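Let us practice reading a record.
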Amino acid sequence: MPLFVTIYFSLLCFGFSDYSSGQEKIDFPQILNNLPGLWASDGSVSFEKWDIASWGYTGVGFYVNSNDTIVTETLKIFRESEDIYYEATVMDQNDGKGVKFKLLKMGDNFALFQNKKHDYPQQIKYTFNGKNSLIVEIIGEIEGGLKSIQFKFSKQ
């Protein structure tokens, strides 16, 4: 992997994570405690890496192409006033600005975030099947119909 990609990826994953050793002190839904770690998609082509920060959770989405690591998005889950938000900043989209999704619903094994004003997706759902299996689902209306895409991950 080229040196600049390695340095950039290292900074994203570790340098800016504001990691806090007080992992259990963050006031977030219990289900999100399963999030920190490296998650690999079925086929190990794409990944999400999540860490705990003093203000919430920080993540990065990326894939590996030959010897290159390509960062596709940076992710955050944080509290703002009384609400919890998931924010995705996708490279080369939205002028580099993050898109926030408000926590709409949660259960014993899932957290559902929503932004009705976003073009697609309007909802992002994280479902944990045990501590080592994760399904990320993006849901929304596009071209007049409802579209859902699932990404299956295993904890590494």
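A brief commentary: Residues 33 and 149 are 24 Å apart (CA to CA).
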